[in-house]
Amino acid sequence: MSSVVQTRPVSPSKAHPTPPQTPPRKQAKLPEKEEEPADMNIPDNYVAWTLKNQKALPPVSWDNWWRELNYLSLSILTITPAIALVGAYYTRLRWETAVWSVFYYFVTGLGITAGYHRLWAHRSYNASKPLQYALATAGAGAVEGSIKWWSRGHRAHHRYTDTDLDPYNAHKGFWYSHVGWMIVKPRRKPGVADVSDLSRNEVVRWQHRWYLQLIIGMGFLVPTFVAGLGWGDWAGGFVYAGAARLCFVHHSTFCVNSLAHWLGEAPFDDKHTPRDHVITALVTIGEGYHNFHHQFPMDYRNAIKWYQYDPTKWFIALMQKVGLASHLKVFPENEVRKGQLTMQLKRLREAQENLTFAPDVNELPVISWESFQEQAAKRSLVVIGGFIHDVSAFVDEHPGGRHLITKNIGKDATTAFFGGVYDHSNAAHNWLSMMRVGVLHGGTQHGLDDKNIPPSQRLRVARYSELGSGNASSTAYSDSEGLIG
Questions:
Q1: Does one domain contain both 387 and 253?
Q2: What does the H/E/C string look like for 320-349?
Q3: Is 9 part of a structural domain of the chain?
Q4: Mean pLDDT across the chain
């Protein structure tokens, strides 16, 4: 609803005031109102609320597929490779052009990986103005959208990974996350992601304003003119350093959305699809250690080991050395190792659950010494460490000979087993525990508490619910308030 505000009538003498004799002082420019973060007022249950209340577009079918295509993206992704293929058929590849094409591939690729991705989307380091302009210009040569558009989608991808609000949701298939999300109109808008910081960046605004001119110049004119003016290969510069190079840069970047969520291992967290693999790193200029990246997205590195392939990390580190980059963010090593340990323990837990261990002590019957001796007369029973063992099936398999077992049937062989005759191995301890059939009344002999636990069970991976108590109590320590820290 709008309202009308009454104003006082203007007096005739003030209707046309006389211009001042001296020019007025220039008014100070009011500061621009900062853009409010897009996710400032979203509900706490934003994802569930959005999926419930925002209606998705109907599924793509044979009846409507032609209306659901993004023809601009489709044109870029089909015409460019067509130019490269046809041009390569008619244009000889000179070695100078080949070298220039590979070099320019890395230049424009680093514009995406070191610029769009790690600098602007994740703010993993600070870059000087010259470096920012260089990366913004090089990134435009990859023809993947402006910094602001690209970063907005990528931030949504990290926030809503593997959900319907993820613009390149890997659960929709390899080819969807590779190119399908660009060719077919999305069924839902990507989840909200704040890029107000980029709206304040003058380099980002500059690139956004001149983006069309930059992609034409950096995508095709620069690679063509360098080859043409440098060694007279105008056609080769356009075909190989321009079109073919652009195809490789495109699919190199697209592999971060597809291959990096499909190939490899999850050494830090397997909650979502990102994976680490050297092949992905090789084809994405170092972005292949994607499981690490999704766990620690603000770290300027993808690869944390010196021998892992990550030229983007090396480039950023070099820029720091020459004074063009600073404040390189590195996640605390202690937290990185926690992530690794978590997954290692999880794998050990899975292996542990596939093994059979000694029967639970609490489920074994308690037998008196007299009853033990009586039953030992009928089968091969031996007491070791307070436990009664049925060694009938092992008598003939004993490496030391059956006589060492038969002479102890119906007796306590604890001393002999624990070093008196032979200090048995961990394997012998573990195997013996599987033969337990009862507990001798009176409990374990003093000093044997630790030895009576089979070595395979002395260190076990336990879930938090299996431990005696959690990390916090449900009741207060006292009625008074305390201080933290």
A1: no
A2: HHCCCEECCCCCCHHHHHHHHHHHHHHHHH
A3: no
A4: 89
Task: Name the nearest CA neighbour of 272 among 423, 437, 161.
Answer: 161
Q: What residues make up the domain containing 166?
A: 65-344
Task: Give, in order, the Cα–Cα distances in Å from 380 to each of 188, 386, 394, 419.
Answer: 71, 16, 9, 22
Helix (H, G, I), strand (E, B) or coil at 182: helix
> CATH number of the domain that 374 lies in?
3.10.120.10
Mean pLDDT computed over 365-382: 93
Instruction: Report whether pLDDT(370) > 50.
Output: yes
How far apart are alpha carbons 275 and 177 in whole angstroms?
Answer: 14
Tokens 């720091």 locate to: 320
User: SS3 for 423?
Assistant: strand
Structure tokens at 299: 């770290």
Query: Within a domain: residue 50?
Result: no
* Confidence band, pLDDT 50/70/90 cuts, at residue 17: very low
CA dihedral 430, 431, 434, 435 (to 10 degrees): -130
Whether 378 is covered by a domain: the verdict is yes
Contact 381, 375 (CB under 8 A): yes
Helix (H/G/I), strand (E/B), else coil: 277: coil
| pLDDT given for residue 15 in this prediction | 42
3-state secondary structure of 439: strand
pTM of the shown model: 0.83
Sorting pLDDT into bands at 50, 70 and 90, what band is 330?
A: very high
DSSP conformational letter for 65? G
The band of 420, judged by pLDDT with boundaries at 50, 70 and 90, is: confident
Which of 477, 419, 482 is CA-nearest to residue 451?
A: 419
Q: How far is CA 68 from CA 58, 167, 211, 471, in A?
A: 10, 16, 26, 52
Reduced to 3 states, what is the DSSP secondary structure of residue 39? coil
Residues 308 and 378 in one domain: no
Say if residue 89 is in the same domain as residue 220: yes
Q: Residue 92: left (phi > 0), alpha (psi -120 to 50), or beta?
A: beta
Q: Are 382 and 326 within one domain?
A: no
